[in-house]
Amino acid sequence: MHPQPESGTGTTAGLPATAAGRTSSAPPSGPAPAGAPDDGRMTWYVYLAVVISTFGGLIFGYDTGVAGGAAGFVADDYGLSSFMEGVVVSTSLFGGMVGAMAGGPLGDRYGRRPVLLLSGLLFTAGALISAFAPGLAVLLAARVVLGAGVGAASVLVPVYIAELAPARIRGALVSGYQLLTTLGIVLAYGVNALFGAGQAWRWSLGLAAVPGLLLAGGVLLVPESPRWLVSRGRLGAARDLLRRVRGRHDVEAELHEIEAVHRQEARAGSAGWRELNASWVRPMVLVGVLVAFFANGCGINLVIYFAPQILQSAGMGSSSSLLATVGLGAVNVVFTVVGMALVDRVGRKPLLLAGAVGMTVTLGALAVVVSVPGLPGANWLSFACLSLYIVMYAVSPGLVAYVVISEIFPLHVRAKATGVATFVIFATNLVIGLTSLPMLDRLGTATTFCLFTAVCVLFVLFCLRMPETKGRTLEELEARFRAAADSRARARVSRDV
User: Fold this and answer.
1) Which of 33, 88, 251, 375 could make a disulfide contact with 242, Cβ separation 3.0–4.6 Å?
2) How far apart are the first and last CA of the chain?
3) What are the CA-CA distances from residue 91 to residues 151, 204, 377, 438 (Å)?
4) d(Cα 352, Cα 63) in Å, to the nearest integer?
5) Which 3 state secondary structure label does DSSP give 86?
6) Per-position DSSP letters for 359-411, written without gaps between them
7) 311-338, pLDDT tens digit by residue?
8) Cα distance between residue 479 and residue 486, in whole Å
9) Helices (H) and strands (E) in the chain, counts
10) CA-angle at 455, arms to 186 and 469, nearest 5°
11) Which of 50-54, 448-452, 468-472 has the lowest mean pLDDT?
């Protein structure tokens, strides 16, 4: 249960931002009309908040990229099986599941900034303990702590940015989280290649403390969410902050709109977990959860974690495979930037569909390449297939998934629903991390990639049915789903009569 706000406006989990500069004339007693103008204004306050909060993506990416490379050296030092090597990789994902479920409610109760600060500190502590761990048990426990920090940041960073961003460029700003994730991955690949020769895995894991400290220290410089301030009844503070964030004095229309949403939800009552199953909420939760699942169940973490092993199975040398993964990471960064330029122009659904089709084709081609014994140039053909797969992922689910999750859920259950979707992300990655090496060892590379190709086919079918969220304010998206639920209810009543 979250404490009630001081002014009795009701609580709202993860309440998102309306468009910056909206001039809606809605009175405090009702929501703003759809289609209010959006000047898309960006102030230095918004830029600072976006840049610092996306360090949460940097810590996520660094841990994702460094784990696969370091785990092999940890396994050599401790004589671990392939399953236990997967456990070393995946323990941070278990911590991420815990952090994902706790991050949203804690962010509602105490604010976005304190929980993001805690996230950075947890990650820093986990990284340092990992570097100095005297044994395997301490190392695994430290990676759980580190993962909890990553999980909380993964929930709150996209929501926090969405609360501040203008609707016109919200997708690009939220996807900045994914850009920093890809930068973290390529940074980790470089560190793995640098320390790989000496098997200095403790340095690789310990350097993760740097981005953790950047997040924790940077959060002290950014503002609290004005939406959260309204939810606590601190209207004066919210008004002052909106003026700084929007770069103008007249913010009453936006403030009234936020209050109107709170009043509407106060009349509906406090939202519990059961509200996620309400008839008009359930379709949105289903979309968010399926986007989260397919964006990670498509095999990306198999590639990110175990790219060196995959390339070695195709005939590439050990040192060459480590360097090749740096190239894959660079491709991921470059095409994430391309995706950021497209997401608010092309839209969420077309990008997801194109990416799902592209990943299906490239994984299928990779399965064929590795299944042909003695195929000339198999190592470089495999690298080409992996590169094209990364391109398709980077411009599509790699960044679009977090954008959709940040904007698809209704206001009063946003933190809970975002926590559930992020839990699904970490749970999917956990299963892949635990099973990938045993699958590669027992089923072979070709069969493993055939299985993930089948998942990508299902992803294509899902993309054909999902709704588009481009260009609509977060309030308009909620109104659309409410109207659709009402229409379905009226149709059921008509059939019964």
Assistant:
1) 251
2) 40
3) 12, 17, 36, 16
4) 25
5) helix
6) HHHHHHHHHHHHHSTT-TTHHHHHHHHHHHHHHHHHHTHHHHHHHHHHHHS-T
7) 776 667 666 776 777 788 888 888 988 8
8) 10
9) 21, 0
10) 75
11) 468-472
Closest CA to 83 of 95, 75, 93, 73: 75
- Which residues, including other chains, have CB under 8 Å from residue 163's CB and lie 6 or more apart? 14, 15, 16, 17, 112, 225, 226, 227, 228
**Neighbouring C-alpha atoms within 13 Å toward the C-beta of 255:** 20
Phi-psi region of 258 (alpha: psi -120 to 50; beta: other; left: phi over 0): alpha
Contact between residue 355 and residue 393 where contact means Cβ atoms under 8 Å apart: yes
pLDDT in tens, 84-113: 888 887 888 889 889 988 887 888 788 888
CB atoms within 10 A of CB 272: 10
CA distance 301 to 123: 20
pLDDT digits (tens, 9 = 90+) for 142-176: 999 999 998 888 888 877 877 776 666 766 777 77
Contact call for residues 136 and 127 (beta carbons, < 8 A) = no
3-state secondary structure (DSSP) of residue 13: strand
Residue 74 has pLDDT above 50, yes or no: yes
pLDDT tens readout for residues 183-240: 888 888 788 777 765 567 888 888 889 888 988 888 888 888 777 787 777 777 878 7
Q: Which residue has the tokens 């977060």?
A: 474
Residue 144 in tokens: 């759980």
Q: What angle do CA 216, 220, 225 make, to 5 degrees?
A: 105
pLDDT for the residue numbered 293: 94
Taking the C-alpha atoms of residue 478 and residue 261, their distance in angstroms, rounded to an integer, is 11
Q: Helix crossing, 176-196 with 55-78: angle to 10°?
A: 30
Instruction: Check pLDDT > 80 for residue 53.
Output: no
Evaluate if pTM is beyond 0.85: no
Return left, alpha or beta for 59; rule: phi > 0 is left, psi -120 to 50 is alpha, else beta: alpha
Q: Are the C-beta atoms of 53 and 160 separated by less than 8 Å?
A: yes
Provide CB contacts within 8 A for 181, sequence distance 6+.
57, 58, 60, 61, 64
DSSP 219-278: HTTSPPPHHHHHHTT-HHHHHHHHHHHHTSS--HHHHHHHHHHHHHHHHH----GGGGGS
Separation CA 440–CA 446 (nearest Å): 8
Tell me if 294 sits within 8 A of 397, measured CB to CB: yes
